[in-house]
Amino acid sequence: MAESGPSEKFPETQTVALVRELGGEVEFNTDYPVPKPGRNEVLAKILYTGVCQSDLHTKSGTAAGPDGNPITKIKLPHVGGHEGVGRIIQLGPGCSDDVKIGGLVGIRFASRICRRCEHCLAGKEQYCKKSTNHLHHEDGSFQEYIALDADYLTILPDDIDPVVIGPVLCAGLTAYKAILNCQLKLGDWLVVVGAGGGLGHLAVQYGRAQGALVLGIDKGLGKRDYIMSLGASDFIDFTASSDLIGDVMRITDGGAHAVVVTSGNAKAFAQAADMLRINGTLSCVGIPPGKAFIETPVSSIVIKGLRITGNLVGSLKECLEAVELVRRGVVKPKIEVRPFRDLPVVYEELEKGRITGRVVLKIAKD
Ligand SMILES: [Zn+2]
Ligand SMILES: [Zn+2]
Questions:
Q1: Residue 168 alpha carbon to ligand 1 centre in Å
Q2: Listed residue (82, 79, 18, 22) closest to 52, CA to CA
Q3: What gap in Å lies between CA 238 and CA 223, rounded to an integer?
């Protein structure tokens, strides 16, 4: 059992980005308490964090639950952030020997799980019936220090680049899992809707790693060039196409084997299944605000033998698999590092769809 020495001093207060009520403005509070690591918890200093669409929807009060209605049970004041990378600086009592001060850890969506329910036992602990997460229940990575459950730590390899790994912990994991759900074979056509975004640019790369031919859909020349540079075979600017489904059918010679929809816009989901060929898979990721519907006729699903899948991030194991492909250089997150105080501006840009890849905030002062 390891504990930090009594001589070590940690600050009592810290800077956090919070909203006092859903839909309220982001405030920077410099007087927020630093959590004390309890039994079997570690205290981590947060170095960097990505900014996810779900953070935007949660703080705006527009995040949808499984019934399509807004999620209202959210801890207030709300401190978002669930794509963080931190360094362990203190161990609470009772941590096992494999948890080390100085080690890199991830701050993900899931924060605590029960380890006993059917989902935990099946290795799908993100669905744990008693789980808590860093989006709705506990303060996330938009703060300088965080206490984490030592038994559910996302222990990251020492040799990763902490600047780029944050976005892998939510966007990357979600994209990776969406691609696994597509069950692609070498040379299959994969359409990624929203290909230039935080999730999309990673789905393009995980899809390429699976040997798929990728057709990216997004808007603008900048995104086109970037998506093609990732090894995509083709690109459609949806603002310039008068017949999007027809264009997909022509390029893929009869429809995609899989379509991954990462868009934050509900409209993108409505006709996505129409882009599929026989026995194709529609893989939904990310959750657009409000009640979004897939408007594909049942007859189409039956007669074409379509599969429709969704997933909530992924398990810790799948997260570490997604991280490993980045560590090995197979997948390269596109990030832009900005100061912590830029968060409100980043939210505005996310809302307008102006961000290619992911913005990463630098949290820790040097
Ligand atoms: Zn997220
Ligand atoms: Zn459980």
A1: 10
A2: 82
A3: 12
Domain ranges of the chain: 13-169+314-362, 172-310
> 42 to each of 8, 37, 95, 128, 159, how far by Cα in Å?
14, 5, 8, 22, 21
CB atoms within 10 A of CB 75: 12
Q: 13-169+314-362 — its CATH code?
A: 3.90.180.10
- Contact present, 99 and 150 (Cβ < 8 Å): yes
CA distance 75 to 136: 6
Residues with CB under 5 A from ligand 1 (ion): 52, 54, 170
Contact assessment for residue 197 and residue 216, using Cβ atoms and an 8 Å cutoff: no
DSSP class of 293: -
Output b/e per residue, 277-313; b: 16+ Cβ within 10 A: beebbbbbbbbbbeebeeebeeeebeebebbbbebeb
The fold of the 172-310 domain, in CATH, is Rossmann fold (3.40.50)
pTM of the model: 0.94
Look up residue 36 and give its DSSP letter.
P
pLDDT along the chain (366 residues), means of 10: 55 97 96 97 98 93 87 93 98 95 97 97 96 96 98 96 97 97 97 94 97 96 94 97 97 98 85 95 86 90 96 94 98 97 96 89 92
Expressed in angstroms and rounded, the spacing between residue 112 Cα and the centre of ligand 2 is 9
Q: Could you tell me the distance, in angstroms and rounded to a whole number, from the CA of residue 312 to the centre of ligand 2?
A: 15
DSSP state, 34?
P
